[in-house]
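In this section we walk through a basic example: taking a raw amino acid sequence and producing a predicted 3D structure, encoded as discrete structure tokens. The instruction is simple. Fold the sequence below.
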Amino acid sequence: MSVNFSNTNSIWASVLVETLHRLGLHTAIICPGSRSAPLAVAFAQHPQIEAIPVLDERSAAFFALGLARRTGIPTVLVCTSGTAGANFYPAVIEANESRVPLLILTADRPPELRACNSGQTIDQQKLYGTFPNWYSELSIPSLELSQLAYLRQTLIHAWGRSLHPIPGVVHLNLPFRDPLAPTPQPEAQAFADQFPAHFFDFIQPPSVQAQFNQFLPAQTRSNQFPPSPSVQTRLIALPHSLIPSLPIPPDWLHTQRGIIIAGVAQPRSPKLYCEAIAHLAKTLGFPVLAEGLSPVRNYADLNPYLISTYDLILRNEAWAKQLTPEIVIRIGEMPTSKRLREWLVATQPRQWVVDLGDRNLDPLHLQTIHLPVAIESLVAATLNPANRSNLAQAPKTASYLQAWCRAEVYVRDRIDQTLSQTEELTESKVAWLLSRCLPDETPLFISNSMPVRDVEWFWCPRSSAIQPWFNRGANGIDGTLSTALGVAHRNQSSVLLTGDLALLHDTNGFLLTKSLVGHLTILLVNNNGGGIFGMLPIAQFNPPFEEFFVTPQHINIAQLCAAYEVEYQQIKDWDQLSAYLNPLPDKGVRVLEIGTHRTKDAQWRQHFFAQFAREMPLLNSDILS
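The resulting token sequence is shown next.
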């Protein structure tokens, strides 16, 4: 038991911290300030919680987001009163949109010091609006056992609400009266004799999380993949409560033109997730259109029907028309591809969205049915005897599937040939090269804007077990570096793929590099501005295009790195980059800068896509009959 009996605030804060420790908390991110002193001291002194001090609240929040995103365990964020908590807001929004558990503790002045011109005081009630899963303001600390029991039970509830039914943010506002430092108070020290020895003994981590983890094989939980039982064996072992009773939709069994879309996803157990999708695809005979931000492309050996070049295939109007599907089964969020979205709107297939959540995931407003179930559980249901019998009787035709696979082979071969022969440093080859040379299982954080699109267009399928990470909840560039550092912290050597504006938007993230345990390589594609705008119609209107949209910053990255004592290397050619990426160092942070030409890169993509669409072979209509 770890309770500091120095004064009332010390007892209150240390009971809070010990309760969170018993619930499973590993890490707390502490921002400096006076009003939060009781919390900062309690977290800093707890022997089993890693407390990390971070100066910039926005950076701190995204670091916590990255850590919680990777582990699935809530990270605690602590700040003082006033505008400090407002700087958490962008990360709160991202955590809500992408279902990441965060527990935010904002210290506050007591009620008598609010709305009376007391310094560093703002209205912190429901500071984050509707974004948290739950909000509460705690009472003023006191030495009553009943109040400490209230504190303990409120924290247990808060922890649970950050995880269930949908992971997200919980915000607790904590008012403190002086003394804020652990100044001794005799009555508090005497209270130690009244404090029950077994006050925390019954507290355990939430049972639902533990139950879910039990059915996952050890290699799945640890991301290590030695030989394992078949997917049938592993999925049929799911607890009965996690297997849906609903039958497989009959339309899935009788259509000859169905596709599976493996969309944007960051599953806790990527191999089992990919096995489930592959099993469904092979059972139904459907191609799997795999988004680059899905782990499916990185478990290519599991899935013979994997389609990675769908965006380019659909740029050929004849192929796009003849590949029109009757039904779509989408797992996860909608892929990034604008071409795919336009095709779905034009063809209007019936769509099933398989997602264990309560959100509307259909921005296209198609003929959509939401199946609120995890894909692993749904596939387990297909192994039930009744469903297995129905699946065996479903008529199958290979022509539609063969057409997709034929197009994939052709386009993938053309992409690989073109990029392998490209010697000039161009943005699009970066994602392609990463997919081919990164060490297996490397955690890769992908920045928004052009990097996510280049990954979708050019990332090669491989059996690398790489798990892509990203902030696609709100799709912003804020917090890119800090989130990547959170993903890399106490993880295996990691990589961040980013553009210059996203990196510059979060340079205070470099203040975290001294706290990082592990390694992060920052692969910076520097085209001195927002390259994505060159792909949009606004590029034709200059001025004001260059100054107000591209916003070039003209920053010397080498000097920026020197200021933060971060290792820096200018990349001159592809062989040099490959050597720096495999093997990766095991500690520290470094920046590898690739200078590219923004306008030429935009023109290259436009020419490349148009040429591929023109040169695709004619589709023999007999293959689809």
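Looking at the output, two observations stand out. The two ends are 72 Å apart (CA to CA). DSSP finds 25 helices and 18 strands in the chain. In the next section we compare this with other chains.
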